[in-house]
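re the bet — no i am not wrong, look at it urself. input seq straight from the record:
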Amino acid sequence: MDVLTDNFSIYGKGFLGTVELTVYASALALVLGFVMASFRVAPVGSLRVFGTTWVTVLRNTPLTLLFFAVMLGLPRFGLVLPFQLFAVLALGCYTSAFVCEVLRSGINTVPRGQGEAARSLGMTFTQTLGTVVLPQAFRTVIPPIGSTLIALAKNSAIAGAFSVTELLGTYKTLSELGYNIVWTFVWIAVGYLIITLTISALFHVMEKCWGVAR
């Protein structure tokens, strides 16, 4: 218990760092995932190709390699940003590929007749997707999106290896101070558990309010 009480500020800074990474990267992943899912079901061939390429490349690229590409590659093109923002970009883009596939699977559960009926009323593709298809698809994808964002929260631990303040990285400082490494990791695990259970509880409430009745 001493490792926590004696170093609460260190744990707190790491915990808040992980929370910030999770929140910002989740927002980016949801936005990009929605856009790419829209591209993948769009009637325009070039958009479908772009969406498919985005998902294929990111889903099959190790996250650590993507961090290296963002952290070391973008500055070579003159884009210099804080490391935390680079980490948000890497996490958000990587997770967006999985969010896209979750949303696309939800869109595929909506009967085709729904879209055909909307188009017969003169609605455009964007109107059909936004007002008819996605609201129905959203109800079926709440649990898997929650699981995807929980995975994002745990994946944020990689950012610590790139000089980003986050929860797992606190073990280095505490180890140098001579604290028991086992208890150090126990309290780190508790921190991640708090974050993941909070996300799980949030999506459980959303599922009860808007999910498909079982």
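see?? The chain is about 80% helix and 0% strand. told u. also Residues 8-40 form the longest helix (33 residues). so pay up
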